[in-house]
Each structure stands twice: as C-alpha cells, then as structure tokens.
Design goal:
With 93 residues, the chain is of the alpha+beta class. It has one domain. 24% of the residues lie in helices and 24% in strands. It contains two helices and four strands, in the order E-H-H-E-E-E. It has helices at 9-21, 38-46; strands at 2-5, 53-58, 61-66, 70-75. The chain is globular, with a radius of gyration of 14 Å. Residues 80-93 have low confidence and may be disordered. Pfam families: HalOD1. This is Halobacterial output domain-containing protein.
Length: 93
C-alpha cells in the first residue's frame, strides 16, 4: 500500500496510516506508542544494518520497517500465507 523513507520511521508510520484511513494522525487509536516503542524503533533503525526488517500489526495494517528507515504499510486483509490464510488465521496444526 504505502512506502516511505524517513529519518523517523514512527512519524512516517503514523502519517501514512492516517492518510490511508483518511483521518487526522492525532485521531489514531490506539496511538502508535501503545503498540511499539517509537524511540526504540528509531534507535534500531539508526544503529542497524540494511538487512534489518521489523514488522508488526497496527490498526488492521501490517507495518514493515527496514534498516534504511523505509516504511511499508500493507492492509491486513491483503496478507496471506502459502495456504491462502492470513497470518492471524494460521493455526500451525
């Protein structure tokens, strides 16, 4: 869905998701800091190698941040595994 590179990935995440959802960034509930520590995310990206990849769910989206600070937002309903199931539906049986 969205992709962006920022020196502050947490700002990019909030801005992109607010834009995708058509809401003000201040109106996002829960706030990003309730899901991931923005300062820790920034430190990881600042001190990482390019191979870093962090992903987590936030507001019905899958957020991925790489070592360059690039942020990729994917709607959770667009995520499927090899069996056509979303990661949340996989049971590991």
């Amino acid at each position: 869905m969205g992709t962006g590179v920022s020196s502050q990935p947490s700002h990019s995440i909030v801005t992109q998701i607010a834009e995708i959802e058509g809401v003000d960034p201040a109106d996002l509930e829960p706030p990003l800091y309730a899901v991931v520590d923005p300062d820790a995310l920034e430190r990881l990206v600042d001190s990482s190698e390019a191979a870093l990849s962090i992903s987590f769910p936030y507001r019905s989206h899958r957020v991925r941040v790489d070592g360059s600070g690039a942020v990729d937002i994917t709607a959770a309903n667009q995520l499927t595994d090899a069996n056509g199931e979303s990661p949340e539906e996989s049971h590991g049986d």
